[in-house]
Design goal:
357 residues; alpha+beta; globular; disordered N terminus
Amino acid sequence: YQRRVHGASGCGCAGLAAPLLAEADKGLTNAPGDNNCFLNVVIQTFWHIPTFRSAFGKQRSHRCNGVGHCVFCSLKSLFEQHRDACASHLPPAVLRECLSAQFAQERRFQLRSMDDAAETFEVILEQLHTSDEGPKDAAGDCTPPCFVHRCFGLRIQEQTECGCGHKSRPLEYWTYVHYVSATFVINSPEMPFGRTLHSIDAGDRTCPNDERPCGRKPVHQRRFLHIPAVFVVGVIWESGSESREAVASFVGRVAEHLSLDAALGAAPGSATGGRNALLAGLVGYYGQHYIAYFRSARARQWVLFDDALVKPVGATWAEVQRYIIEGRLQPFLLFYELGHAEPAAATAPAPRAPLPH
């Protein structure tokens, strides 16, 4: 199968032959014992984020790792199948086998093994960044940002400041996911959801004056130097089996519309096309199983993606919240697309829809 796919689409540097339009919402197979669900939700994420799908489809060249080892080629093949195939669901085998071969020595992402979906999301993005042919500095950072960083890359500067006047050396780095504690969000009902994303606990940090620390508790500051087109929030839960009440408390706090100016502050030099972001989708888990919810441009409503199962759940975020709470699904990746204005007035929730079986 792998040879056939690469033989059909090639592993050269040509771009996609036709635009990657969301013609249909397709499921992805997960036979008993395959443990593909962690990868399936990541593939659905990439396909259902229009900003990424468009940017990826426009790439005309890349550094190819060769047949069976190139994440770019494997994802390209899957996207072409998603666009062209008549089947209601597709096998993720080409990307599954590629990751297994690519990380064989580390024994990660091996066939039929379960892995973490958030880690898989970040690993695939880093592989795509590495394959980009744009200029990179000695540290491997792309200048200007490649399509991966334009879509998902957060450039962050962190620094500790003490009341005595001493400051730590600024630390700058790229990341694809901005993590927040679910417990902190739940326990901060008076704080708008966006502000919880920017709040930082100095923790055990001490005065940055190594020679004569003053003993005061310093303030840890974080500046966002580059905000991508898609802002990804990672949620850290204390347990993998939270109560229905905990899930309901967290999901009830998640904002459908997010002002990044309020949440993160100004980011000099960022060209985001607007700082109002709309929740485009999420990935969550219950037990050891991953599923995803995304807005479908074709269906004009929210759609549940549970491996091969593709099920519309309603047009409003309120309906999705009810599904999540009833299923005790713990959201751990939230995807906000920038450039969406918040509506002047909230719309009334639609009638209750039947839960998925």
